[in-house]
Amino acid sequence: MKKIVFILFVAFFNLSLFCQNELNLKYNLMPWPQEIKENNSSFIIDENILISVLGDDKEQRVEKASVKFLRRLANRTGVFINNGFPVNDENASIKINFKSVSDLSIESDESYDLSIDKDQITINSKTDVGALRGLETLLQLVNFNDTGYYFEGVNIKDAPRFIWRGLMIDVARHFQPINVLKRNLDAMASVKLNVFHWHLTDDQGFRFESKRYPKLQELASDGLFYTQIQIKEIVKYASDLGIRVVPEFDVPGHASSILTAYPELGSKDNYDYSIERFSGVFDPTLNPTKEETYVFLENLFTEIAPLFPDKYFHIGGDENEGKHWDESKEIQDFKKQHNLKTNHDLQTYFNIRLEKILSKLDKKLMGWDEILTPSTPKTAVIHSWRGKHEGLAQSTLIEAAKKGYQSVLSNGYYIDRMLSVKEHYLVDPIADAVLTKEERKRILGAETTMWSELVTPLTIDSRIWPRTAAIAERFWSVKEINDLDDMERRLKVVNFQLEELGITHIRNRDVILRNISNHQENDALKTLSNLCEPLKVYSRNKEGTEYKTFSPFTLFADACIADAIEADAFNKLVAIKDFDAINNHLKKWSNNYTELEPIINYPNIKPLKELSKNLSITSKLLLNIITKKEINTNNIIELDALIVELKKTYADVELAVVDSFTDIIFYCKKTYLNKK
Fold first, then answer.
1. Cα separation, 200 vs 169, whole angstroms
2. Containing H/E element for 444?
3. CA gap 173, 176 in Å, rounded
4. Torsion angle of alpha carbons 65, 71, 76, 82, nearest 10°?
5. Backbone angles phi, psi at 97, to 5 degrees
6. Which residue in 625, 622, 629 sits closest to 662, CA to CA?
7. Can you say whether residue 362 is alpha, beta or left, with left for phi > 0 and alpha for psi between -120 and 50 degrees?
8. Which pLDDT score, from 0 to 100, does residue 165 have?
């Protein structure tokens, strides 16, 4: 009997999985909901559509979201909606019911139920933020046919897997104006991210207006900083979207900008502190042995804290190599007096002092995982960023949780490394770790990180999106939603929906290409940009000294993205050996150099000359071999030499089809060599 029950259970599970996979192929939802069922109906979108908000919307989040929803719906469908604002009407076609207003904490409930049938759409949630999440899902269910637009008929029950789903934007290396932050907050909300981690200070700039210490913005910001009014504006804008804002003020390292303004707080006397123009890890460090340091930080944090309602306050704490500490006799004597054997012990002493300051301000200290030491208070939150690339066997997330700390993961989600979306998507925050219920509860979630050494307001969107939309699914959806092909299919649709929100990741690529071509339209240049990817894992800016903060980021590499569109399509064709389609690409690329020739000697295109030429020669040769189904030794020698050239880097990019070329050559040698 038990065996029969087990067989029936397995059969039911497999049937459910099959049905779910069928739905995945039909709908373009991202992140994918916890539960979705079709009801064989559809709701026609016409001018009479009405939204009613049934709940105490005292923060007006749902009202504002409803207005935005109606505008986005009208713009997407072209329907002239009669009433562009929510109404208090029980008979409205879209009814939003919620029970309470969220306090935007890690305890906040974001679950919702969405029901769409022929005559009625309802969103039921425990909180107003849950209703916002439901509205975003509803907008992703817009479809059309020959007669017009409609919402797909489904019933959805949904809730997030992790309570902390964030995006970190570094505004210190390159300042990002308010409008850039707002459009990215809109995009975050569209894929249900709920934490904006705002990295406000670093060696290259201090971006917060301090009225207590005005030299910080006067001497350490190049005039690029947010006023306290603007800080409040962003916090409020994020709150309206159901997004928490966690500020980061990086100490004791990454402190060049602070010490430019207040050198007396530094660890090295008579040092010429200045704002850094390059990237990397630098020596200037706050002096943790001076009481003046703690007075300064307590006063500064006391000024900052009221502007950020969130409980969490990030102090950085990363990449302090302690060189200036080692060179200071005063600091070494202090270590001996306090029995602090290492710089890690000294930094822990510093962190404990900060934890007490923040506790008085009703804040929880959060820091990068270097703060994880035996003496660190269990109230601290560990932000795990290091992994195999930094010499560790694995990330510190699980270790921190097992040791009793709340933890957040960013290792595997460093999108500034320009890795493929596939790599990030397959990183699961917990993976196969065996955790107790309490340990699992301590893992709050994860964040993508957008460090801005190599991005400006012109390019930042193309470095964040659309990859972050796929990563957001990893944070929201169940672990089993991990099919790469399905993710990529849905991401193509979401990619264009992001543009509706004002994200510039698509349009600004053409702006850059026009810039380097002296405003000449050239399809061959566009093709080349769709085949190349920027150098990865910081190899574009070796040692941090190739680019300064004011260097041009309007070059060919800045027009290329982490997942080269045409290269990705070609690589998939090569994998299945679809030679008809492969040949179409090769024909096009055979003419790349000829078509690029009119502008090939323009100063910012000239570095691509050899790449374009070798791409064309290789494509022409492979096309001839495949068409004739013949290859000889001379062909192989020539192709091998071409592959060597194509593997080189040009203008800080790499050709993303080289491996596929190699696969084709191998296939041709195996199939056609010495065969008549």
1. 9
2. strand 443-450
3. 9
4. 120
5. -115, 125
6. 622
7. left
8. 98
Looking at residue 203, the DSSP 8-state letter turns out to be T
Active site residue 22: no
User: Which residues sit opposite 409 in a β-bridge?
Assistant: 384, 446
Give 107-165 as a 3 state SS string.
CCCCCEEEEECCCCEEEEEEEHHHHHHHHHHHHHCEEEECCEEEEEEEEEEECCCCCEE
Burial 621-632 (b: 16+ CB within 10 A, else e): bbbebbeeeebe
Rounded Cα gap, residues 67 and 313, in angstroms = 32
Q: How many residues does the chain have?
A: 676
- Give the pLDDT of residue 9: 54
Residues contacting 371, CB < 8 A, separation 6+:
315, 317, 347, 348, 351, 380, 382
Q: Are 246 and 195 in contact (CB under 8 A)?
A: yes
Based on the number of CB atoms within 10 Å of its own CB, is 78 exposed (0-12), middle (13-18) or buried (19 or more)? exposed
Count Cβ atoms within 10 A of the Cβ of residue 467 and give its class: 0-12 exposed, 13-18 middle, 19 or more buried.
buried
Query: CA nearest 319: which of 386, 379, 258?
Result: 386
Please work out, in degrees rounded to the nearest 5, the angle formed at the alpha carbon of residue 404 by the alpha carbons of 399 and 410.
45
Catalytic residue among 218, 298, 319, 630: 319
Q: Which two tokens stand for residue 504?
A: 């510039």
As a whole number of Å, the end-to-end CA separation of the chain is 64
Q: Tell me which residue of 651, 318, 663, 351 sits closest to 516, measured CA to CA.
A: 651
CB count in 10 Å sphere of residue 145: 8
Q: How far is CA 182 from CA 10, 139, 178, 240, 346, in A?
A: 47, 20, 6, 11, 39
Beta bridge partners of 360: none
Give the side-chain half-sphere CA count within 13 A for 500.
17
Residue of 527, 420, 541 lying closest to 470 (CA atoms): 420
pLDDT in tens, 526-570: 999 999 999 999 999 887 788 999 999 999 999 999 999 999 999
Whether residue 207 has pLDDT greater than 80: yes
Return the DSSP state at 650: B
- CB proximity list for 647: less than 8 A, separation 6 or greater: 654, 655, 658
Of 19-28, 60-69, 450-459, 637-646, the one with minimum mean pLDDT is: 19-28
Q: Tell me the helices (H) and strands (E) count for the chain, helix number first.
A: 26, 19
CA distances from 539 to 18, 370, 604 (A): 43, 24, 20
Residue by residue, what is the 3-state secondary structure of 335-367?
HHHCCCCCHHHHHHHHHHHHHHHHHHCCCEEEE
In this predicted structure, the answer to whether residue 18 has a pLDDT above a threshold of 70 is: no
Helix (H, G, I), strand (E, B), or coil: what is residue 255?
Answer: coil
Please name the amino acid found at residue 435: L
The total of other beta-carbon atoms located within 10 Å of residue 176's CB is 23
Q: Which residues contact 94 (CB under 8 A, 6 or more apart)?
A: 49, 50, 51, 52, 121, 122, 123, 138
SS3 assignment, position 175:
coil
Q: Identify the three-state secondary structure at position 391.
A: coil
Residue range 108-133, pLDDT digits in tens: 999 999 999 999 999 999 999 999 99
CA-CA distance, 128 to 103, in Å (whole number)?
Answer: 10
Confidence of residue 654 (pLDDT cuts 50, 70, 90): very high
